[in-house]
Each structure stands twice: as C-alpha cells, then as structure tokens.
Write a structure and sequence with these properties.
By secondary structure, the protein is an alpha+beta fold. Helix content is about 25%, strand content about 25%. It comes from Streptomyces viridochromogenes Tue57. Keywords: Membrane, Transmembrane, Transmembrane helix.
Amino acid sequence: MRDIDDPRELDELRELRDFAPTAPRLDDSTRHRVRGRLLTAMDEPAPVVRPRRPVLRIALTGALAAAVAAGVLVAVRDDDGAGRGRTAQPPATSAPAMRNVSAQTVLNGAAAYERRHERTVTPRDDQFIYTKEIIKETEQKTGETKSYVDENWRSVDGSKPSWIMEIGKGWWSPPLKEDQSSWPPQDWGTLRKLPTDPEKLILSIQEDWGMGGKADSLDDIGDQEWSHIHFSLAGLLKLVPVMPEGLRPAAYEALGMVPGVKAVPNQQDAKGRTGVAITYDDPTLPEGAGGFGGYFIFDPKTYAFLGFRDQRTSGDGPKTKTYTQLSYLDSWAVVDKAKQRP
C-alpha cells in the first residue's frame, strides 16, 4: 500500500472515518441468489401464511465498518413458499464521534435495561394488544419527509381478526387456520412458550422455527443456520413490540450471540437522537454483500432501545422511489376490543 502524503487525501480519509458511506447496490444475479437462499432457509413443513405486514425488512450492510446497508431485501412466504424481494439504498448519517463498543456490550446492556424497566402484563385471551407506532419517511432524492401514525390491535389468542396498519393504511387480518403458522408468532400463548434463556431461545428457533434439525449446543450451528436464526430474532424484536415478561431481554442477548452482529456508532433515530445501531454481516453472502437485519438503534449510555431504521422502495424502473424509514413505539396497552383506544 502506498504512503499518503497529500493533505487533501488525508482529509478525505478522515471524512470516510467519520461518515457512513453507502455501499454499491447488489447486482441482479447476486440479489436473486440471496433471495433464493432466504426462501430455502424459511421452508417449513407446515403452511406459512404471508402476513399482511412484511415479515421482516432485511438490510444488507456494506463491508466498511461504518457503512450503512448496501441494499434491502423484503421477503415473505405464502403457503406455496413463493416470495418477493426488492432492493434499496439507505443513506448514511453523521454525528459527533462516539466511543466504539461491541455489539455484545450494547445488546447485553439493552437486555439489562429492559429487565429493569420491563412492564409486566397478563392479558386475557379475549383481549387485544394495542400499539401506537410513529413512522417518519424521507424520500432520498427530494428530501421530502412524511410522518405516519400506525395503530394496531392484535388479538391476544389469535382467534379474532386483528386490525393492522402500515404507513397509515390499515386492514383486517383474519385469524390463522389450524394448519397454519407464522414467524414471528403474534398470539400470546405461543410467545409465552418461547424460552427466556437466550441460548435456549436460539436452540428453540433452530429446532422448531429454523431450518430443521435439533442442535444440542450453539457449537453445532453452522453459518447457514445462524443466518436464519438472526433473521428470526430480528423479526421477533421488530414485529412483536409487546412480549411476555423476560422474552425481549432474552432476544437481545440471543441476538448478541449471533456471529456477524456488529455495532455501528453515530446513527440517528426518528427523534433526531444519536445512538449506536446494531446490524449484521452475513458470512454466507458473497464478500462485500453485507448481511441481514435492519438497524436497531440504542441509547449510547443507557442502552435503552430508541427505534428502528429501515428502507422502503415504491414504483419500478425510472419511477422507483427510495425512502429512509425511521420508526419507534410511542405507546401500548391491553384493551378489550379492536379499535378501542386506552
């Protein structure tokens, strides 16, 4: 490697150090290979219903330590295993320098914070979990920003239609049929059965919800299985904002055990607060393609969870628009009826 003597080049390197550059967009062949691997990984014996809301937005982070995602792949499954995907480019954010910490430190700290501040609740089967989420989207080319309030009412035992909203639009989601299942589970009974020990939670996902095959220890899990486990944990944390006691802290700790999870400093949330984000480099993808996981943003001191950062695209070809999406949970409650506010 040659020596760098030009002050201008040194200044440019310092800027790269302080900012999160956007990695190149994946080519079509790589994107199709990734999508095919994802759909294979999600294959289960039981039919899986495609949720009305996307199962999980998966950010592909770049190779640089501070890089934001190289693309976003949205994958969902129908009964026949069919899936759809799309890619997008999230922008970088910059902020004052923040001390470097490991992903394990952040996620273990988040788990400890959650246990200290966790609200316990035991809803009845006939009730609903109400959540109010704030979504802030910025169109990347024009800089136009819009905000949405998404209110959801999910049936506690899954036996009643749930009202689901996304980006200001809502619909009734019917109950699952007896021979159907979905990840992440939404009914309270299934959530309560998930282990609150992080290692047992990983092994449970591997055996019951993952790629099949029982693993006696984490050492028995390969890269392909870890990729699916991360996909499952990220989906659980993102799409189930209210969980039985102890499950969210365990999910944070379990996420910290996944090889390839990393911390990215100086990321802003929907309220403009600067935090440290957790994302994922997938070792099963081609070099430089990054990995799955959106950005989970935490307070850099207390490790309290602040919110998510995602990408969304709309339209096709030259009319395609790419949005940076920031979101956070504003409030939640247990109510007796759908559409009833606390």
